[in-house]
Amino acid sequence: MHVLAMMVSIGKSLQELLEYMPGPDFPTGGLIMGNLGILAAYRTGRGRIVVRGKADIELLDSKTKRSAVIIKEVPYQTNKSSLVEKIAELVESKTLEGINDIRDESDRSGMRVVIELKRGADPSIVLNNLYRLTALQSSFNCNMVGILDGQPKQMGLKELLQAFLEFRCSVVERRARYKLSQAQDRRHIVEGIVVGLDNLDRVIDIIKDAKGNAAASAGLKEEFNLSDKQADAVLDISLRRLNLLERKKFVDESASLMEQISKLTELLSSQKNILQLIEREALELKNKFSSPRRSILDDSDGGLLEDIDIIPNEEMLLAFSEKGYVKRMKPSTFNLQNRGTIGKSVGKLRVNDAMSDFIVCRSHDHVLYFSDRGIVYSAYAYKIPESSRTAAGTPLIQIISLSEGERITSIVPVSEFAEDQFLVMLTVNGYIKKVSLNYFSAIRSTGIIAIQLVPGDELKWVRCCTNDDLVAMASQNGMVILSSCDIIRALSRNTRGAIAMRLKEGDKMASMDIIPAPRHTDLDKTAEDSISYDKGGSGPWLLFISENGYGKRVPLSSFKQSPLNRVGLIGYKFSSEDRLVAVFVVGFSLTEDGESDEQVVLVSQSGTVNRIKVRDISIQSRYASGVILMRLEHAGKIQSASLISASAEEAAELLPGMQSEEATTNAGTAEGISMAS
Known about the structure:
With 677 residues, this protein is of the alpha+beta class. Helices cover 26% and strands 28% of the residues. Helix 6 packs across helix 11. The longest helix is centred in the N-terminal third of the chain and has 42 residues, at 157-198. It is found in: Mitochondrion; Plastid, Chloroplast.
C-alpha cells in the first residue's frame, strides 16, 4: 500500500500501476482478454472486461487426425450445464458446425467438457465460434464507485487509491487516538493504585476513620493528591490484591502502558509512520489469506473476434473477368482433364465480357490488386463472396475503391509480408523495378502508388521474389530474357524503374515469371547443344502458351542469364496470326519419374476453362512451333493462363519459405489481360 501511495504521489502512469494491480481475479479462473477494458476502468472508473473460459485442443486419434476441444474453466457466473445445452442446441440447428459429440467428463479433480470434432474440422475455427456464439466468452462491466465525503462517486484508479489511502489513514489515526486515550486513562488509574499500595497502612487508616465512601474518597484525594478515578480505584481494590505480587503486576502494567503510549504518540506524530503501519497490516493480510491467482491475463486481442478468426484458411480459386467481376470457388469445382479437350465453362459471363485472370490462394491471404495506372489496393481473399461455378460473380468495385476507367492488371496473393521478399513490377513498354514487400503491408482503402508511369505505359505484371531468385521475361514476339533479381535495384514505390528489354518496333512485353532460388542452378555453364528434348529430360522448363492455344516446354538451361536492357534470346517462333500469352517456369513439383506434377489452367475469351497436366505438354527446342493445348474453334483465343501445383504439400517442402504465389503464377494476354471497373 505504501508503494502504491508513493506511486500516486509522484504521478506514475496507469501502465506502471498495472504492474502492481494487473486486473481482477475471478473465482472460477478463465482468461482476461486484453487490458483495454481494465485501462478504461482504471482511467475513468467504468470499463468492460472480456473473460474467456480456458480451453485446450487435444488430438484424439493420430491416424484419423481427429481432435477435440477440452473446456477446463468457464467464465465467472457461467453455468456449465447451461453452456453444454447451448452448444448442443447450436449444433442441432447447424449454426455451429464441425462438432461430432459433446461429453461432460468433470469429476472431483476438476472440470472437463470434451467437444469431439468431426474429421477435417479446424479446431481453432470451432473454438473461435464457441467464443462468439456461447457464454464461453463473457463480458463484465466494471463500475468503480466509492463513498467520498459522505457521497457516492465514480472514480478512476488513482483517485480511488488516493481516497482509499486517505480513508485508511483516517481510520488508523482515529484508532490510534482511541487506543492512546484508553491507555492514558488506564495508566492514570494504575498510577493511583500503585500510590495506594505503596502507602497501604495510611490508606487503611483513612478508610477506617472515614464515616462513608465519600469521606474516604475525599481523604485519599487530600492525603495523596489523587483524582476522583484514582481514589475510586483504590477503594475498589479487594483485600486479596494487597500482597506484593499484585503490586508488581500493577507496576509492570504501568510500564507497559507507558511504552504503548509512547508508540502511539510517535505514530500520530508523522504521516509516514501511519503509511508504514498501513503497509505492514496489508502485508500481514496478504501472508495470512493469500492464494494463487486464478484468472490469467492475455494481452493478445482483447477478446475481439473478427471474420478472419472464424473463417477456415482453406485453398480457394479466384476468377476475374475483364469487366471487373470476381468470384470465389472451391478447388474441387474443376476436375482434371486431358490435353486437347474443350474444357469446362467457368460460369455465366455478361455480354461482351471475358475471363481475365484465374488464381489460386488461401482464405486468409492478403490479395494485392495492381491497376494499369500503377495503383495497388488490398483486401482479404475471404472478402470475395463464395459462388458456384455458374454464378456471374460480384463487381470488384464493391470490394476495392477503383477510379473510373481504372483496370486491375495483376493480382498477387500474400500470406506473410516477409522482410526478405520483394515485388517485381513490369510494364507493357518494358520498364522493370523491385520494391520491398513490406511497403505494401498497410494499404489504405483508396489505394497507394506502386509505380510511377509515363503517358502511354501500363503496369501489367507483378510477381513476388527474393534477391536470390531469377526472373524470366518474354515479349509478344517470343523473345526471352533470363536475369537475376539481385541486379534489379530496390526502389521506393513512387519511382519508374529501369529498362528490362530492348523491344523491337511494334513489340511489347507479354509475360513475366519468377524462378525460385532453390530450383535454379548455374545455367551459364550449361551448353545449349547438350540438351535433350525427349520425355526423359529433367526440369525445370519454361512453359510457353500462345494465343491460338498452342504450347511447349523448353529446358531452362537453353537460356543463359543476361543483364537487363538486352534484346534477349528467341524462345518461340510464331506465325503472323499468333503471339505469346504467357510464360511459366515449371518443374518445381516432380513425380518419381522426374516429370512435372504441376497443372496449367487455360481460360478462353468466352470463359471456357481447361485444366491439364504440364507433363502432357511436349519438351521442344526454342525454335519449335509447339503442340495444341486447347481447341478454340468456338472459344476465340486464350485469354489467361494459371499454373497450379497438384500437390501443395510437396511443393511447400521443395520451396521452403516461398510465398503461396510462387507456387501459383498467373499471366494475362499480350493485349492487356485486365478488368474494367
